[in-house]
């Protein structure tokens, strides 16, 4: 396992250990290494306090210093280094009121959301797994560390993360975890619409977009729309994994207008006016069509014609093929 770590991560941990501190890769990167998945974000937990980390790495960026996190970049790879910590209550339902730095790895892992995210790698590459994360990986199951009600009432964002992670990994939600998600879904009202939108889009673009039905069943989206109807959620997987296509399919399936959902203006326009997005991607521009002798309204009609043609035959989106398709206009 140790050999799978990038040199940047190994060097960061080695520098901290060389200064007398404990340091080990932790969290999602360990989970993905065990699953054989590409790792997007690298992180390590350490007994060094933020100011001690900064002494070892003077160029470290204080990306979350108040919560014990600084980021060190090595060979183009950002590595988040976070001090072992305990957390106080979450009065705002999003962040702990206080954090207490300490030197206990197990207590640090105990504050994490899911067992599969509560593992670390020791200096010899051994997996440190006090909460059964490896067993849950084998069972393809998402289970919380500790009491599910406590975890989701602390931070409602964990509800969305749980559904998203299950969709991305192809895992199931543990029964008690799902029940606690439903009970704590009201806390999602504290999150910004943009944050909800980003998590929902990650679900829609995952290999299992039908997990969006879980968000509806949990009433996680009722702040945006409450006219949900019974759906065959599996049909979402038949849609290309593209933003406009998946959002559009979700709206067509549920009857929820795209204008009610927390999406970017670009996505909303692409769903509401699909030809407009298709036209902007044509291999022939309006100016080029003018050079071929089209004028005024003729250009718009030709563009709409070509956009529909490319929807049917995407492989024809080349200048030569579009010119052949334009024969009726020239």
Write structural notes for this entry.
This protein is of the alpha+beta class. The protein is 44% helix and 12% strand. It has 16 helices and eleven strands. The protein has a five-stranded mixed beta sheet. Strand 4 (69-74) and strand 5 form a beta hairpin. Helix 7 packs parallel to helix 9 and helix 11 (243-254) crosses helix 12. It starts with 6 loop residues before the first helix and ends in a 5-residue tail after the last helix. The mean pLDDT is 90.
Structural descriptors:
44% helix; 330 residues; alpha+beta; globular; single chain; two-stranded antiparallel ribbon
Compile the SSE list and pairings:
Layout: H1 7-18, E1 23-25, H2 28-35, E2 42-46, H3 50-56, E3 61-64, E4 69-74, E5 77-83, E6 85-87, E7 99-101, H4 105-110, E8 120-121, E9 127-128, H5 133-139, E10 141-142, H6 148-154, H7 157-169, E11 172-173, H8 175-184, H9 193-204, H10 212-217, H11 243-254, H12 265-272, H13 274-280, H14 286-291, H15 297-312, H16 319-325
Parallel strand pairs: 2-5, 10-11
Antiparallel strand pairs: 1-2, 3-4, 4-5, 6-7, 8-9
Summarize the model shown.
The chain is an alpha+beta fold and 330 residues long. It is 44% helix and 12% strand. It has helices at 7-18, 28-35, 50-56, 105-110, 133-139, 148-154, 157-169, 175-184, 193-204, 212-217, 243-254, 265-272, 274-280, 286-291, 297-312, 319-325; strands spanning 23-25, 42-46, 61-64, 69-74, 77-83, 85-87, 99-101, 120-121, 127-128, 141-142, 172-173.
